[in-house]
Amino acid sequence: MSDERFDLAIIGAGPAGMAAALEARRHRLHTVVLDEQSEPGGQVWRNVEAVTTRRPQDLFLFGAEYADGYPFARRFRACGADYRPGARVWQVEVAPPPSEPGPPASLALPTAGRLDTGPDDDAVHVERRHTGADRHVYFTDARGSHHVAARHVLVATGAYERPMPLPGWTLPGVLTCGAAQVMLKSAAMVPSAPVVLVGAGPLVLLLATQLLRAGVKPAAVVGTVPPANWLRAAGRLLPALLAPGYLSKGLSLIGALRRAGVPSFAAVTDLRIEGSACAEAVAFRSRGREHRIAARTVLLHQGVVPNANLWQSLGIEHYWDPGQHCFRPVVDTWGNTTIAGVLVAGDSAGIGGAEAALCAGELSGLSVAWQQRRIDTAERDRRAWLTRRALKAHWSVRPFLDRLYQPPPALRVPAGDDTIVCRCEEVTAGELRRLALTGVAGPNQMKAFSRCGMGPCQGRLCGLTVTELIASIQHRAPAEVGCYRVRAPVLPVTVGQVAGLDRMPGG
Amino acid sequence: MSLGKAAPAPAPEFAIVGGGLVGWSIAYGLVRQGRRVVVHDEGDTALRAARGNFGHVWVQDKGAGVPEYHRLTRESALQWGDLALGLREASGIDASLQQPGGLSFCFDDAAFEARACLMRRIQAEAGDFGFEFEMLDRAALERRLPGGPALGPKVVGASYTPYDGHVNPLRLLRALYESAIALGATHRFGAPVEAVDPVVGGDGFEVRTAWGTAWTPQVVLAAGLGNARLAPMVGIDCPVRPVRGQVLVTEKVQPVLPFPTADIRQTDEGGLLLGSSQEEVGLDDRVTIGNAGAIARRAVDTFPFIEGLRIVRSWAALRVMTPDGLPVYEASTTHPGAWVVSCHSGVTLAAVHVHGVAAAIAGGRLPPAYVHCSARRFATDASGGSAASSVARKEAHVPQPA
Amino acid sequence: MFRSLREDEGTDVRIAQVTLSVDGEACTLPAGAPVASALLRLGSIARLTGLSGSPRAPYCMMGVCFECLVEIDGVPNQQACMVAAADGMVVRRQDGHRAASGVSSR
User: Chain A contact for B4, CB < 8 A?
Assistant: First the structure.
């Protein structure tokens, strides 16, 4: 077992984590980057080194943004950070001595008017340097379990796709759109026909065109955006036009699908996946008519949500973002949280996309360099100025996208009683609804009473549904209902691996 | 949230402060007696021992030096079958009671001998009430677990008593809750009780929360650690303190453990629960690597196969501990109508709470059998406390919250 | 459910291939591909749930959902999407809860 000590430990080697590492190394911080994949890149640039070097003929499938990941990953590899692929972090321990000061007073909850924006120029700075105790990071790789200590920890764990609890969503053959992208990037495989894409969001369009390029024509793209979303989003169109490239790219994807003659349906309702042993068809209503489209593979997507379990396990203060329909950590413009020495950057702090994550990671790296006195305040702010402007520009498209692609209520909280909400423990919406009606006080009591959220995924695929279900039944705000209390280990680790860690510092 | 019947419901006779196992046990016991109760429950993020406990119905090492407490625990274990049956009838929920007896492992000869001494002492103190136990050496233990898991090399032996068992504590909480609601209890949640103010003239109490004040003729304080703050408001000293315990849960496996042990048991759902740490860290209920490591090592020392199982969840919770480890059942003499119930064994003692304690509260007085649980033992005087507490403090082992 | 991008072009020599078995059925994959991609290629499920016995297969492919738990080289409950395929790997579907010993009950 290792017992190493670093200035900064970064968890996740996606855009935010890599950008933070590059910035930290610029200021000679002794930096370790722990990532569960075998290559840097995160989900958006997944496998980009292998594809670029060993399957360059496939690069055209993914587009220019993906190809950009390769030079970035090379720079990251050369930056001098201690990069550990295949490392799965299961616990970060912050054991402050009683004298440690509490959260800085300037870290107030964002005001309601700013909830759906990203970090911005006017937000507060944390004028406080964390010089306190080490933070401890525990992880597992192919060789066993390990520990590193670091003065600062940056959580850059990205996002995953928002669960889409539909009738039939547990059937074999139903995957996420992201899963299909992973198959394309990591295994050079495509779904066999007939394949149907269901949902809403930029990834649906992107994947559909990638599949077309790969020679797979989807049997249908089944859209779930309710007409009212267009009205709500329209008011946010103007700032979105200022964001670099997002909307034109979206329009060109839509155009490509039209030209290829992919059948598409919009504003569908009563969505369900049919099949006994595996997915056989997607059924829905559109424009007053019932449809049933045969499918061997069904790919779901309704946006992404922060991969929050690790920062949640630290007890970092969080808030419900009604625009993004998820919980986000309270952070300042640099990513500092209410736990001293712990930062969150990129999509795990709120969905802003890869470009915004690059900026956020860089700002977090700067803040750590400043807190550890590698740069003074003037240099920090000078270096941050352009990055912060770029970050703001990338966030300006979000209010539009968040409103347009907000999943309809029926796809966040299943209307039918038989639909499974907790895939691990097979708990249905009906069971949860019945308990919510008796007055179960919140997600944690719900978990205790129903086992919902107690399986190995630890509530990642049911947590938001449970919060919104209780809120809707009891006429409460999701913010007040709250969320599961997440506890380490956030990934399964063997008893033997934990047994070997008894004499660690901080234990 | 219970909507009740169409006719306006008569005012509750009892306000119960605390929606954990103790509070709902008393509530269920009272509504079974036809009494009208309202349960004030802090809500989802309360420091809730009831969601953190191990699930033991555990007798074997309780009450050395205080035979009355040993007897109370035994009685509750004996009544547990009736409790489980009643809950199943009222709510349809099976608390999964199993009472095959329990094992407490020893890892060296000295510990084995000390354990034997403790068992002999409890037996001697039990007198006519009797106490059966067996000290099983390694060979006898292996015979007791035929085809079961191999023992770790350090295992010397174990004590066994036939009274011990385990339940699904979360289903117990839900069963108590749903049974009480089904029999008419009202549930108010979302705000902690800030104060219980006796009305001048002895005319009941005002229960104060952030949302307002509710009058009640009688009040039962079952607020766990909150009792330390609330009980003095009705003239009772209840100096409970938090003792943190951490538990690890493994992935589900096919049935492998026929008996619960003092710190390992297999739940009816298949996962193994591994305990039990004890720490005095105030109101900090975070999990730590240090505790997880110690718990994991002891579990692997007991049954080596556990090494390869994955931990899927872990939690820590705060036991509600009195200075001597005994429960508190007390009626206020200065403010009649106020009652205090506190203990760290909300599962084991649930049967006594539902049947005996709730009946006593409904009847207006606590029977002499509970006198050793009186809060008067905490009254500080020149001699430094009562005889009962000084004896009980020598208890060799503070058990899991169970 | 899935097929290789270049099924008809034959194997690309630049990419090393590995062969593993899933319940006795051989599957060849590009080196580094996750074990779960073999399940998807063969159209195989990963497991039957311990509660209702319903079939589950890979869903998220990124370590989040824990649906693709399989036995790999005798070790049960491995996330097939998080383990890279290697030559000679023996993958087995799981039927209900694992055995305590780690040895498959089937």
Answer: no
Best mutation site among C3, C66, C69, C79 for testing chain A: the one with the most A CBs within 10 Å? C66
Angle of helix A15-26 relative to helix A69-78, nearest 10 degrees? Answer: 40
Pairing of strands C2-4, C17-22: unpaired
Q: Which residue has the tokens 């590899």?
A: A77
Query: What is the distance, to the nearest Å, from the Cα of residue A411 to the centroid of all Cα atoms in its chain?
Result: 18
ipTM of the complex: 0.94
Same fold, A3-160+305-375 and A413-476: no
**Could you say which of 3.50.50.60, 3.40.120.10, 3.60.15.10, 3.40.50.410 is the CATH number of the domain covering A163-302?**
3.50.50.60
Owning domain of residue B147: 102-162
A50·C12 Cβ contact <8 A: no
**Whether B294 and A500 lie within 8 Å, measured CB to CB:** no
Residues of B with CB below 8 A from C98's CB? 251-254
Are residue B128 and residue B249 in the same domain, yes or no? no
Contact present, A340 and A101 (Cβ < 8 Å): yes
Which chain C residues are Cβ-neighbours of A14 within 8 angstroms? none
Distance from CA of B63 to the nearest CA of A (A): 30
CATH number of the domain that residue B35 is part of: 3.50.50.60
pLDDT digits (tens, 9 = 90+) for A396-446: 999 999 999 999 999 999 999 999 999 999 999 999 999 999 889 899 999
Q: Considering its fold, how many domains does chain B have in total?
A: 3
Q: How far is CA A213 from CA A265, C35, C61, in A?
A: 21, 25, 22
The answer to whether A188 touches A54, Cβ cutoff 8 Å, is no
pTM over cut 0.95: no
Peptide bond into A489 cis (omega under 30): yes
Residue of A nearest to B43 (CA): A441
Same domain? B234 vs B246? no
Residues B278 and B260 in one domain: yes
Neighbours of chain B (3+ CB pairs under 8 A): A, C
Partner-chain contact B290 A506, CB within 8 Å: yes
Q: CATH number of A413-476: 1.10.10.1100, 2.60.120.20, 3.20.20.140, 3.40.50.300? A: 1.10.10.1100
Query: Is there a contact between B84 and B95 (Cβ–Cβ < 8 Å)?
Result: yes
CB–CB contact A438 B314 (8 Å): no
Length of chain C: 106
The number of C-beta contacts closer than 8 angstroms across A and B is 126
pLDDT in tens, chain B (402 residues): 444 444 556 789 999 999 999 999 999 999 999 999 999 999 888 888 888 899 999 999 999 999 999 999 999 999 999 999 999 999 999 999 999 999 999 999 999 999 999 999 999 999 999 999 999 999 999 999 988 899 999 999 999 999 999 999 999 999 999 999 999 999 998 889 999 999 998 899 999 998 899 999 999 999 999 999 999 999 999 999 999 999 999 999 999 999 999 999 999 999 999 998 888 888 889 999 889 999 999 999 999 999 999 999 999 999 999 999 999 999 999 999 999 999 999 999 999 999 999 999 999 999 999 999 999 999 864 444 444 444 444 343 344 444
State in words which class domain A3-160+305-375 has. alpha beta
Does the beta-carbon distance from A489 to B269 stay under 8 Å?
no
- Give per-residue burial for A247-286: e unless 16+ CB within 10 Å, then b: bebbeebeeebeeeebebbebbeebebbbeebbbbbbbeb
Best mutation target among B283, B289, B309, B312 (most A Cβ atoms within 10 Å) is: B289
Nearest by Cα to B282 from B240, B314, B229, B313: B240
Which C residues, 28 through 57, put their C-beta within 8 Å of a C-beta on chain B?
A: 50
| Spatial contact of B205 and B221, defined as CB atoms under 8 Å apart | no
Question: Residues B344, B196: one domain?
Answer: yes
Domains and CATH numbers, chain C: 17-95 (3.10.20.740)
Task: Please tell me whether residues B252 and B315 are part of one structural domain.
Answer: yes
